[in-house]
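[audit] Reproducing an earlier prediction to check determinism. Same input, same settings, fresh worker. If the tokens differ from the archived copy the diff job will pick it up downstream; this log only records the rerun itself.
[audit] input (325 residues):
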Amino acid sequence: MPRAGIRRGGVILLLLLGMAGPACHREKNTDQTPPVATVNGEKISLADLEEALRPVLGNSPSFAPIETSAWETLKFNALNQLIERSVLLQEAKSQGIKVPDQELEKKEAEIKKDYPQGEFEKTLASRFIDYRRWRQSLRDDLIIQKLIEISTAAAPVTDFVVSRYYERNSGQYQIPVQVRARQIVVRTEQEAREARENLIKGEDFAKLARRISLSPDAKLGGDLGFFSAGVMPPEFDQVVFSLPPGQISPVVKSPYGYHLFRVEEIREGKTLTEAQVRENIRETLGRESREKAYQAWLQRLKNKAEIRINQSLVKEKINPPAAKQ
């Protein structure tokens, strides 16, 4: 079965919203359909899986129906998330991990702070999401987060490990030569030649660009900012990276028209030192180490759990969304 682990540290918003669809309005599941899965006897209903898929169903574009193979993968990924969530909540319960109301209210306030008064509740209602169940899902997320923090501490990343990583990957810390250039774009070669003559006579490049250039950067005086080789079309690079600062380029033809360039500044290439990137490396390696520890720990929990999946029910009862007309 495809795996889609619950990530460390944050609120699992997609699953949280997905588990709170129209069926949320019933307090108890009265559906007599067999469960799609059980985790240590705890049932995951067909309605639970449908709700977990609801964000995807609601956003399926009318011109791109989901292919059967992709839909099957999506269904089982969603079911795996529900299974993992159940495993984690059961483990948290066994360890007596709880989230007090004050902590829940603080997190709730953080989520709501970007919404005008009352708008968050309206947003939930517009998606047929029951507020009480949403709040319980949020509490569960915080419980899971606490459990993960307690159970998956990784060893600190030492300076030796950082140095070894830097030595083996120093190439990714090389900053190539960059130039800052201006351009003028016109429709015809004759216009470009006349503009070049005026520039050589001393006319201000930025002012002329604002007046005659067809490029969107004309309002910036033709300023393209800093860029390295390979960002612009090859015909641009060939000219710009051979120009000394302040010199006007020959006329350059492209599919966009006829161009003139002037290099304003050159930044020489360099390699960032280990000291400059040390903390970035430490953070990256620490995050990877924690994720690896988390995945191994989660797999151990799943291996210990009695997990039963009704494969045929998942395949037969939930069909891909039809293309909207």
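[audit] rerun output stored. Observation attached for the diff report: The CA atoms of residues 168 and 278 lie 14 Å apart.
[audit] end
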